[in-house]
Amino acid sequence: MQAFANQQTPDIQALFSQFLAQLPPAQLEQLTRKSDGFPDIRTESRTHVKTAVAAHWLGRQEQTMRGWASSESGPLRPIRVSGKLAWPVADIRRLLGVL
Hints:
Elements: H1 12-22, H2 25-32, E1 48-49, H3 51-58, H4 62-71, E2 79-81, E3 84-88, H5 89-96
Antiparallel strand pairs: 1-3, 2-3
Helix pairs in contact: 3-4
């Protein structure tokens, strides 16, 4: 997709933060709570997590996360380790407002 010269690229991270700010506290809590065998983001000790965990915390599909990585258009940038994506926990916490 080609952007026109007079159009600015939207700040995805800012838009995502605005979206999260509009969520009711209970729904935000649900997104960050441990469930379905996934670790709780507030107690996670790893620096990076697999796509499935990051997608769970952010309430997104794994394919969405892979799309963000491929197009470099999402609010997060993963690193690649042996061909696998690793998502930074600190950046996910910042996006969700969980410190």
